[in-house]
Each structure stands twice: as structure tokens, then as C-alpha cells.
Specification:
Blueprint (H helix, E strand, L loop, with lengths): L25 E4 L9 E3 L2 H12 L22 E4 L5 E5 L2 E5 L9 E4 L4 H8 L10 H4 L2
Antiparallel strand pairs: 1-2, 1-3, 3-4, 4-5, 5-6
Length: 139
């Protein structure tokens, strides 16, 4: 098993990457406190599906400051990370987009009506990667 308890799919999706950085798309679920969350490498088909869901999100709009990634125990959303360092965290109808490190851009929040992106990310999990009931939490 790869470092940090992460699970990996058999076919890695390669991206442009950055010199010395990760060159694959990864996804996971935020579910644990005190141990590594499940994460996996996306294959090319999964990357295409997640990118289509990302592209379908409505443009950014002002969101109340209180809207943030949940700090509760248990399931707190799903995430996908691109080879260039960008990361999207989807939870409860919102997507928090973090720009690439040292990119100079600021965090963007977008609506995920119907939790489409959140569920698309969870659907890429390899069998056994998610604790029972996690996918049900995104319904």
C-alpha cells in the first residue's frame, strides 16, 4: 500500500505536472480524524468524468463567509487534486477551489447543485476504499 495509507487504482492518469511534483490526479474522501483519509489515483476515464463535472459547475459567486469546509467529525466531503497543485473540496452543495501553490490566486467557492461533483468524486473510489455509508452521506 502506498505511503500514508492511501489506496491506488491500477491505471494512473498522467498529467502535465510540475517539475519534481506529482504527475497524476488524485481523489479522496475526508472522513477520519487522527488517521489518514482514504485517497486514490484516478485513471484517465475517471479524470475525464471529474473534469466534466468541474466544467459544469456554475461560475464563482459571492458566498457567505460562514460557508467553509466542515470541521465536524465524520464525513466532511470529497476532494480531487490536479497534477499542478490545484485542489477542489466538495461538500454539502459547495466546492472550494484552492489554487496551485505559489499561484498567486485566491480560493474560489462555487455551487455544486445536486452535489454532482461531490458524488462524481466518490464514485471513482476503488472497491473497499471508503468506509460503509460514506457515499450515502453525499446524497
Amino acid at each position: 500500500m502506498p505511503r500514508g495509507g492511501e489506496q491506488r487504482s491500477t491505471r494512473a492518469a498522467r498529467g502535465a505536472g510540475t517539475a519534481g511534483g506529482a504527475r497524476e490526479w488524485t481523489a479522496g474522501a475526508l472522513v477520519f480524524s487522527g488517521r489518514p483519509d482514504p485517497a486514490w489515483t484516478l485513471d484517465a476515464d475517471a479524470v475525464d468524468g471529474v473534469r466534466a463535472a468541474l466544467d459544469a459547475l456554475p461560475p464563482p459567486e459571492p458566498v457567505p463567509a460562514a460557508r467553509g469546509v466542515s470541521r465536524r467529525l465524520g464525513y466532511r466531503g470529497s476532494f480531487v487534486a490536479a497534477p499542478d497543485g490545484r485542489r477542489w473540496t466538495a461538500f454539502a452543495g459547495f466546492v472550494h477551489e484552492d489554487p496551485a501553490p505559489r499561484g498567486g490566486a485566491r480560493r474560489v467557492v462555487r455551487r455544486d447543485d445536486g452535489r454532482v461533483l461531490e458524488r462524481a468524486i466518490l464514485a471513482t473510489a476503488p472497491p473497499g476504499a471508503l468506509p460503509p455509508g460514506v457515499a450515502d452521506d453525499a446524497v
